[in-house]
Design brief:
This protein is of the alpha/beta class. The chain has 2 domains: 226 residues, Alpha-Beta Barrel (TIM Barrel); 56 residues, Alpha-Beta Plaits (2-Layer Sandwich). It is built from 9 helices and 11 strands. A 9-stranded mixed β-sheet has the order 5-1-2-6-7-8-9-10-11. Strand 9, helix 8 and strand 10 form a beta-alpha-beta unit. It is globular, with a radius of gyration of 20 Å. Bound molecules: iron/sulfur cluster (SF4) (2 copies). The site of one iron/sulfur cluster has 15 residues, from helix 2. This is YjjW family glycine radical enzyme activase. It holds the Pfam family Radical_SAM.
Length: 301
């Protein structure tokens, strides 16, 4: 007898409504796992999958974390998975603070059908869904199946399907999802490859190629530029950045993000935040070079 194992997404959070993760009002699914390791990450506990080390179990004040029991046929190491009991969890985030693995025990696994049933409950209140992360595209096969299912469901196909991504996906990967995807939001954090390598831990060639590919396919909804004064280089490389934008359709939104300390850990906490005045200067300089709509940050924390 053969069993087909259904694909499951590893999900760190589902937000029923958001008006900042793509056009309109959206249900957002944040997937666990990322292929970048940004110094400035404001969600570092979404980077890695839990390795079941157990360091967070003892400290949970409500007993929401435990080790699974060995069942018949399992070795102890197979069974010793860290189990999260959502009903007991108060979301104090002590486990997240303790974790030295940039991970999170509070993840859930969903099949496509389970996600569809969550979407069905919200369908009359949303204009679409956005898959975010971590990095959404590290779970690309699940996204392709989910988007396909939405687009072939008579009751859901009016919903738009977006991906919020760091852009580190090959052209082949994008081609798999583009037929079912309405749009993507892509982050660009540095222009010079050396700066990108230092800040993110990977080169930026694939990111820039993704921006161009999505624009040519008519699927680039938003380009996000992160301004970290004195650390990133999007201001000192403004002519090159402007040239990239000039080659994009004029209806692509360019969102300017200001580096802040919220959620950040490690050396990035010692960096200066981007002030409103610094962002205004960056906005001015870029807007004088491109006709696109540049959106400023809503808040500075
Ligand atoms: S969440 Fe972190 S500390 Fe807790 S078991 Fe997983 S890897 Fe270990
Ligand atoms: S967030 Fe939940 S699981 Fe984590 S330590 Fe707090 S109560 Fe325990």
């Amino acid at each position: 007898m053969s069993h087909t194992v259904e694909k499951q997404a590893v999900v760190s959070r589902i937000l029923n409504f958001s008006c900042v993760d793509g056009p309109g009002n959206r249900l957002v699914i944040f997937l666990q796992g990322c292929n970048f390791n940004c110094l400035n990450c404001h969600n570092p506990h979404t980077i890695n999958y839990c390795n079941d080390c157990g360091d967070c179990v003892e400290g949970c004040p409500t007993g929401a974390l435990s080790f699974g029991q060995t069942s018949f046929g399992q070795t102890e190491s197979q069974a010793k998975k860290v189990i999260w009991d959502e009903a007991k969890c108060t979301h104090c985030d002590q486990c997240v603070d303790v974790c030295g693995n940039k991970s999170n025990p509070k993840v859930k696994h969903y099949t496509v059908e389970q996600i569809l049933s969550i979407i069905r409950k919200q369908q009359f209140f949303i204009s679409g869904i956005t898959i975010s992360g971590g990095e959404a595209t590290v779970q690309l096969p699940f996204i392709v199946d989910l988007f396909k299912a939405i687009k072939s469901d008579a009751g859901l196909q009016h919903l738009t399907c977006f991906i919020d991504s760091n852009g580190y996906l090959s052209a082949t990967g994008w081609q798999r999802v583009i037929p079912y995807m309405d749009g993507a939001m892509i982050d660009l954090k540095a222009w010079q490859n050396d700066t990108h390598l230092w800040l993110i831990g990977r080169d930026n060639h694939k990111v820039i190629a993704s921006i161009k590919l999505l624009a040519e396919a008519g699927k680039l909804h938003e380009l996000r530029l992160l301004h970290i004064p004195g650390k990133s280089d999007l201001d000192s490389e403004i002519d090159a950045v402007a040239q990239l934008i000039m080659d994009l359709p004029v209806d692509v939104i360019v969102r300017l993000n200001a580096f802040q300390h919220h959620g950040v850990i490690g050396e990035a906490l010692t960096w200066d935040k981007c002030s409103e005045a610094q962002m205004t200067a960056f906005h001015h300089a870029l807007q004088s070079r491109v006709p696109h709509t540049l959106q400023l940050p809503r808040v500075y924390m």
